[in-house]
Structure formats: structure tokens, C-alpha cells
Specification:
867 residues, alpha+beta, Ubiquitin-like (UB roll), 8-stranded mixed β-barrel, 21 helices, 28% strand, disordered N terminus, thiol protease, Ub_carboxyl-term_hydrolase
Length: 867
């Protein structure tokens, strides 16, 4: 329901009541009907004086029976309003008196009362049985000082018509109406001109008013000596104004939450309850033709004057019109709507009609204070609105070139702060590390990384666990269906992209081979257990590929030697020994395979190894390096044994097109490729006896990533708001997509960026970045952020220590999100000044809440006002 809806529209006698009512209802809200005594005490001193009218019944039969028949044939309430003496105020001469007042003046009067009285009455204004309701009046001019007022059943709901009969019942006591709105004068003037020009008579003018607090108890008090407090409490109790909910139109809780927070921002309340329409900029090409500001102002007024939940249909229509992403009835982000709304309101109310072009000058060694004031002055020359006055601040941004140390300093405005939420929740991930030169046995490590950390976090933790050398790098891959399907080379990618059932393999590469071409070996072997009769075993793929730097000479011999070198850690000693492989940072060595070879040639090879080298090394948690004899494992023994080993493998060049085509590589084949690809894929077929000579468990069974670490009860993830601020302000490198062009180096550089707060706004909006989005995943952080409700001290974060207003803030509103990315619900927690307490705004339901209960992991957007 609007605060007031009024119109002064001519309507001919032939115009239907429905059409006339529609014309009146489409006009902007402007006039309210309130108790005269109350208005006389609370109105502004400079407000215009009122015009007094005495109401009497229009002519009707005096005989009672005829009056009943007349009322049946003419079911309208008709009054004769006779103009009296024009005075600025005073008594009403007894009886009941009402005042027609402008809605904006009424709003200001209510706001003043709310801020000044601090009433202790717990009976809520919203709960008053009187209620507020619209009433359509038909006014026509009989003579210069006499008006006819008609209230018709066809214009008004039955209940409203019955209430009007009680208000204007002139049989029991006199009724007076004071017009402080100027509407009756306007009607008289229009009728005078019309009669003079066109000589049309019996012209009716529709006037829609909003009637407030006309309960029986109130009207009875008006006739007596009613004191100030009782009059005010009967009309608009301070403790309940603004405690009105918004109806959910279908997944619009995100919108309701943001609106309630803004609608309880004191400076915006005062502004939109006043004459804000005069400040609308309809020519701003960046604005929304003033329609967004008008829709928001109308909605805010309803929230502060209505007594039942407000359906924000009109406001939602305007939002969808100018921001199609919010159309329909899907769930959206309350902070995204808030950002659009603040920006749209600013442009609709921007008082700068012609924005000057101001080119930012380089600091050139000037003091920061001078440069910051220059930037701020340029900003204000193009932006002047209540949003700027309330919500805009300024921060200092410093970029430093990592090569030449050139710095660039700018001072940029902000409307809100989007703070990262550092999370202490950990995820345990298992990764198997392989060598690329055959010097180490494979080892699986369990490493802890932030639950929503990056691949950079994973590589860092894994590097520490495997004691990666300064001259080495780790290439992390995702393995699926026996092949490397993805190289995890983007440090900023989230580990949430990796599911619990995925399998990871990391390869130690010398730094000198970081950009070198690579050869990737996939391999398959005969599974002797795949056939019941063991006569026709099937080929099976080994799960873990092996990887190495591509040899300079790409031929059959070099590829064979490279592969055999990679297999050396898996070689069994004497066929009956065991290979000890590290299974984690705290694991003991485990037997992977016991196999006894029945092939004499193989036994001769292994016997020679036992004579030339010590026992297989114990793979410890600190290092999994293999100890070999004088010759490499794959190169030991006699030439015949080596030749026998070579015959155990066949090599095939896989098609780069991924069509499954393979070309056999002959060992003596030279110049296999004219140009080296970045990654050469080779498939190795193990012949029947080969698998008996190697421990293949680590090739066959690559472990999955572990499940999320369970957080014991009482140790939930939490962080202080100051920790979020420090994470926001800390120096960090720009992302690869945000490279900065260094004017000294003459090229784009991944500069270091440092932010500092410079100028704080009157209202500080803090957005906690709980949601993260990628092409494949969406996550929400449930971290509990411990934020102060009073005395948020930001003085230590302000870079400018001179001439700053107070840097202490008090919390007054929170936009909350409950649930996850798949589905959730928004509410608002708001401190109500008049009610002296916190209230929960859950769509159309508004209930008190304790201050202790406002701090939850659902807190999403925080609203602070300067103390």
C-alpha cells in the first residue's frame, strides 16, 4: 500500500466510477487524512496554514421512512463542506476535526517524532486496530465557498466505506476538515476557470487520500481534551514504524533482504521521506530516467507508514526492466542487487547534469594528501548525490613493478568493501609423486590444503612434503582411465575443482626442463589372471603414466632407453625380493609385490644385480631415492641379458589426433619425427614375462584424493573481521589476466598490488566474499566471521592520519544467507532505533531477536554507521 495516493483529476458526470477510480489510483501519492489536533502539534512551523471547512449532511428528506428509501436509492455518503475563516491553526470549535496534509510533510513529522521522543509504550503502531487505508473522494463545486463531498460505494471497498461513514457521521457531533494540502483551493481554481471558459457544470474531481488511525477510541478522544503524547501514540507509535515486512513474490528473499537494510539506513530514510523527487535527474544517460529512485522511494515510504506487509510488485518490475538478470523468479545474490541498486539510485539522483572530463594527473612525487584530495575533487565534480554523501569512500592503490620497482599510486572511490574470508578449514589430499629420471621410487603423500585453496597451495604443501629441491619443479596432473587428462598448471585454479574420487600424479622435473617438450608413456600388460584357463590372458592398462623430458634425438633407441630408466625403481631384485615404496609422509615401507620368476634369463639378470648392488633401499618419509650399483639397473649384466630385456617391450607412437591410431616404433628407427611436439605420447606394450620382473602395484593402483577432513565439534572454522580486512589490504601479485603495463619496462608485468583505506564513508558497507564461482563449480564458505556490533575501530587501517572524521562504527544491519549454493534463503537482521533492539526481517515476518543471536556464519553483508 502506498503512503498516500492522491489525484485532482476532472471527471465528467458521464465518466464511469471504475474509470475515474483507475485514473485517480494511477497518480503519485500526495495527501493523507490525520487527526487535526495531532497535526497541529507536530507539523513544521513554516508549514502553510490550513483552510477550515464545516461538514453538514447534504439535503435529504426529513421523514425517517423517506430517508431510508433515499439511502437505498442513493447509496452514497454526501456532505456539504462550507468554507470558514482561514487561519494558520487553532481550535476546531468542538466536535471531530481532521486535517488533509501533504504526504511528504507527514513523513518528515513522523521521522522527527521517531528520532526525538523515545517513547516507552510497547503497544506497536503496526498493531493498532485502526489501520491505514485509501479512500476515494468525489469533490464538486457548488458555490465559491461551498463544496460537495461524495464518498461512493462503487469507488471504495465496503469496509473502507463503512469506516468513512463513522468518520464523517455529522448526526452525532459536528465535523470539521482542515485542508493543509492546498487541494481544495486547486479544485476551486480549476472549476472557476472551467466555468468561465466552457460553462460546464457538475464537474466531479477525484481525490484519493490515505486515512490514518481513525479508530473509535481515537475519535472519541479527539472530542475531549487530548494531550500531546496520547494523540501521538494513537496516530503513529514510534516503536513500530519501520517494522513492516516485504512479501516474498517467489524467490525474492534476496531482494527483500537488501531493501530492508537500505530502508533502515537513517540518512536514506530521512532523504526519501522528504521531497526527494525534486532531485531526480531524468537526463542522465547513465541513470534510469528517475524511475528506479521513484520506485524505491515509494517502497521505502510504504515500509515506514503502512501497517501490514508490503508486496513490492512495482519495485521488482522496475528492477527487472533495467537489470534483466534479476527478472523472473530465480534466486539471486543480495549483494549483486545491492550494488546495482546503489549505483542506479546514485545516477538517478546525481545532481551533476553535465559531467566535466577530468584527466588524472600522475603523482610525480607529490604528497599523498595532495594527490588524494585532487582525485576526490575530480570524483565529486562528476558525482553528487545522497548515495555519494552516504556510502562513498576512497582507498589508495599502489602498484609496484617486480622488475624495475616502478610504482604507480592512484586514489579510487569505493561504495562498499568486498573482503575475502580467510578459511582455516583444511582438506587432506593424496598425491603420488614420480621421478622423471628413475632416481626415486614413487611415493604417495597426504597433504593438507585450505578447503577452498588454490593449486598453488597444493603445490606448495606437496613440495614441502616431498623435499623438492631448489632446482626442481612439480608438474601436477589429473589421471583418468590410465591417461593424463589434465595438466594442473594454473596456480589460481581452485582445488575445489578436484573431486574426492579423482586421482592425481605429480612429476619431479628439473627446472631446466620446465619449458621443454615431454614424453608421456602409457603402458599395458598381459593380465594372467584375466582368463580362467590362463591360456589367453587379456591386455590391461597400467593406471599411472610415466613422464620424462623428451630426448634431443627422437628415435626408437632413445625412447626405449628413457622408458627403461623410468622403470628402474620398479625393478625387482632376484625375482624374490620386494620393493619398498613410500606410501605417505608418515608411512612405513610396504611390500608391494612378491614374485618368483621361472624364467632363467630373468633370474640370471637379477642374480647379477644382487652381486653388483646392495639390497633395495627402504623408502623413507623424507626421501625415496634409489641406490644403484656401478651400472644403471636397466643396463646391468651381459649384453644378452640386456637384449632379452629389450625384447620384453614394444613401443607405439600414439596419434596426436586422439583417434586411437598407433604406429609401431622400431628400436633402430632413426629420425622418428621431424619436429618435436610439446608432448609426445607413446604407448608401451609389455610382453608376457615382463610383468614378473617389476613391482607394478604403484603403476596399477593410483590412490584417490582423500575425503574432506572432519572438523571436530567445537572447532568450527572462524575468523575475526579484522582478519578479513588484513587479507584485503595485504600486498599480493596481480593475476595473469590483470597484468599492469609498466611505463619503464615498456611491457606488461605481474605487479604487486597494495591497498590502503584513505577516506571512510558515513555508512560503511562490508561484503564478505563467501561465494566463489568457476566454470565447473560454485562454493560457499560457511566460516564464522566474528564482527563487532559496536565500536568497530578502523583507525589502524587508515593511511591518511590527518583531518579524518571518526573511524569508529556501529553495526545497524546485516543481510544473511542461509544454506548453500544449491538452495538457500536470505533474511535481514536490523537494529531499530526506536524499538531499542534488534529485529529479524524474514520476508513478511518481523520478530524481535537478541543481540547475541545476530552473529552467525550466515552473515553476508554488514552495514555500519559512523559513531
Amino acid at each position: 500500500m502506498a503512503t498516500a495516493a492522491t489525484a485532482s483529476h476532472p471527471a465528467s458526470a458521464s465518466t464511469s466510477g471504475r474509470d475515474a477510480l483507475a485514473a485517480a489510483s494511477s497518480s503519485p501519492a500526495a495527501v493523507c487524512l490525520v487527526p487535526f489536533r495531532w497535526w497541529a502539534r507536530v507539523r513544521e512551523e513554516e508549514a502553510a496554514g490550513g483552510v477550515q471547512y464545516a461538514a453538514t449532511a447534504a439535503a435529504s428528506p426529513s421523514y425517517y421512512g423517506l430517508r431510508l428509501l433515499h439511502s437505498f436509492l442513493h447509496p452514497d455518503l454526501v456532505l456539504r463542506l462550507e468554507r470558514g475563516e482561514c487561519r494558520a491553526g487553532g481550535g476546531d470549535g468542538g466536535g471531530r476535526s481532521y486535517a488533509l496534509v501533504p504526504a511528504d510533510e507527514l513523513s518528515r513529522a513522523l521521522a522527527r517524532q521517531n528520532s526525538g521522543l523515545g517513547l516507552q509504550n510497547k503497544h506497536s503502531f503496526a498493531g493498532d486496530s485502526a489501520g491505514a487505508y485509501p479512500l476515494v473522494l468525489r469533490i464538486s463545486v457548488r458555490e465559491t465557498s461551498i463544496l460537495t463531498l461524495k464518498i461512493s460505494k462503487k469507488d471504495n471497498p465496503v469496509e473502507n466505506y463503512k469506516r468513512a461513514n463513522k468518520i464523517f457521521n455529522v448526526d452525532s457531533q459536528p465535523v470539521h476538515v482542515w485542508d493543509f494540502s492546498g487541494q481544495t483551493n486547486l479544485i476551486l481554481m480549476n472549476e472557476w476557470n472551467r466555468l468561465h471558459d466552457c460553462c460546464h457544470a457538475d464537474q466531479e474531481n477525484l481525490l484519493e487520500v490515505q486515512v490514518y488511525a481513525m479508530s473509535d477510541s481515537l475519535t472519541s478522544k479527539i472530542g475531549g481534551d487530548m494531550n500531546y503524547d496520547s494523540s501521538y501514540r494513537s496516530f503513529g507509535r514510534a516503536g513500530s514504524m519501520g517494522l513492516i515486512g516485504l512479501e516474498n513474490l517467489g524467490n525474492t528473499c534476496f531482494m527483500n533482504s537488501s531493501i530492508q537494510c537500505l530502508a533502515h539506513t537513517p540518512k536514506l530514510v530521512d532523504y526519501f521521506l522528504g521531497d526527494y523527487a525534486k532531485n531526480i535527474n531524468r537526463t542522465n544517460p547513465l541513470g534510469l530516467n528517475g524511475e528506479l529512485a521513484l520506485a524505491f522511494g515509494e517502497l521505502l515510504r510504504s515500509l515506514w507508514t503502512d501497517r501490514k506487509p508490503v508486496p513490492p510488485h512495482h519495485f521488482k518490475e522496475k528492477i527487472a526492466c533495467f537489470a534483466p538478470q534479476f527478472s523472473g523468479f530465480n534466486q539471486h545474490d543480495s549483494q549483486e542487487l545491492l550494488a546495482f541498486l546503489l549505483d542506479g539510485l546514485h545516477e538517478d539522483l546525481n545532481q551533476v547534469k553535465c559531467k566535466p572530463y577530468e584527466e588524472a594527473k600522475d603523482a610525480s612525487g607529490r604528497p599523498d594528501e595532495e594527490v588524494a584530495d585532487e582525485y576526490w575533487s575530480n570524483h565529486l565534480s562528476r558525482n553528487d548525490s545522497v548515495i555519494v554523501d552516504t556510502c562513498h569512500g576512497q582507498y589508495k592503490s599502489t602498484l609496484t613493478c617486480p622488475t624495475c620497482s616502478k610504482t604507480s599510486v592512484t586514489f579510487d572511490p569505493f561504495m562498499y568493501l568486498s573482503l575475502p574470508v580467510p578459511s582455516t578449514a583444511k582438506r587432506v589430499m593424496t598425491v603420488t609423486v614420480f621421478s622423471t629420471d628413475g632416481s626415486r621410487e614413487p611415493c604417495s603423500y597426504d597433504v593438507s590444503v585450505p578447503k577452498f585453496g588454490t593449486l598453488s597451495d597444493l603445490v606448495q604443501a606437496l613440495s614441502i612434503a616431498c623435499l623438492l629441491g631448489d632446482d626442481e619443479i612439480l608438474l601436477v596432473t589429473e589421471v583418468y582411465n590410465n591417461c593424463i587428462i589434465r595438466y594442473l598448471e594454473e596456480p589460481s585454479d581452485s582445488v575445489s575443482l578436484l573431486r574426492d574420487g579423482d586421482k592425481l600424479a605429480a612429476y619431479r622435473l628439473p627446472k631446466r626442463h620446465e619449458k621443454s617438450p615431454l614424453v608421456v608413456f602409457t603402458h599395458q600388460h598381459f593380465d594372467e589372471h584375466s582368463s580362467d584357463d590362463n591360456l589367453t590372458p587379456q591386455m590391461r592398462e597400467f593406471e599411472a603414466p610415466l613422464l620424462a623430458a623428451l630426448p634431443e634425438a627422437i628415435n626408437g633407441l632413445s625412447l626405449r632407453d628413457t622408458y627403461l630408466k623410468l622403470l628402474s625403481p620398479f625393478r625387482l631384485s632376484n625375482g624374490a625380493g620386494s620393493l619398498n615404496v613410500c606410501m605417505g609422509s608418515n608411512s612405513d615401507s610396504v611390500d608391494l609385490m612378491d614374485a618368483t620368476s621361472s624364467d632363467s634369463g630373468s633370474n640370471n639378470f637379477q642374480n647379477s644385480q644382487l652381486e653388483d648392488s646392495p639390497e633395495s633401499s627402504h623408502c623413507s618419509a623424507s626421501e625415496c631415492e634409489i641406490t644403484k650399483g656401478p651400472d644403471d639397473l636397466y643396463d646391468g649384466g651381459s649384453g644378452s641379458n640386456k637384449e632379452a630385456q629389450v625384447e620384453e617391450f614394444e613401443f607405439y607412437l600414439k596419434s596426436e589426433r586422439g583417434d586411437g591410431q598407433q604406429q609401431k616404433i622400431e628400436i633402430n628407427e632413426l629420425n622418428l619425427l621431424e619436429t618435436a611436439p610439446s608432448r609426445l605420447h607413446v604407448n608401451v606394450h609389455w610382453l608376457r614375462n615382463a610383468s614378473r620382473k617389476y613391482a607394478t602395484s604403484m603403476l596399477n593402483n593410483l590412490p584417490e584424493i582423500h575425503k574432506l577432513e572432519l572438523i571436530p565439534k567445537g572447532t568450527e572454522d572462524s575468523v575475526a573481521l579484522h582478519g578479513c580486512l588484513e587479507a584485503f589490504l595485504k600486498e599480493e601479485p596481480l593475476g595473469p589476466e590483470d597484468m599492469w603495463y609498466c611505463p619503464c619496462c615498456k611491457k606488461h608485468q605481474q605487479a604487486m598490488k597494495k591497498l590502503d583505506l584513505w577516506r571512510l564513508p558515513e555508512v560503511l558497507v562490508i561484503h564478505l566474499k563467501r561465494f566463489s564461482y568457476t566454470q565447473l563449480t560454485r562454493n560457499k564458505l560457511e566460516t564464522f566471521v566474528d564482527f563487532p556490533t559496536s565500536d568497530l575501530d578502523l583507525s589502524s587501517y587508515i593511511a591518511d592520519k590527518s583531518k579524518q572524521p571518526s573511524s569508529h562504527y556501529r553495526l545497524y544491519a546485516i543481510s544473511n544467507h542461509y544454506g548453500n549454493m544449491g538452495g538457500g534463503h536470505y533474511t535481514a537482521s536490523i537494529y531499530h532505533e526506536e524499538g531499542k533492539g534488534w529485529y529479524k526481517f524474514d520476508d513478511d515476518c518481523v520478530t524481535p531477536m537478541s543481540e547475541d543471536s545476530i552473529k552467525t556464519p550466515a552473515a553476508y553483508v554488514l552495514f555500519y554507521r559512523r559513531e
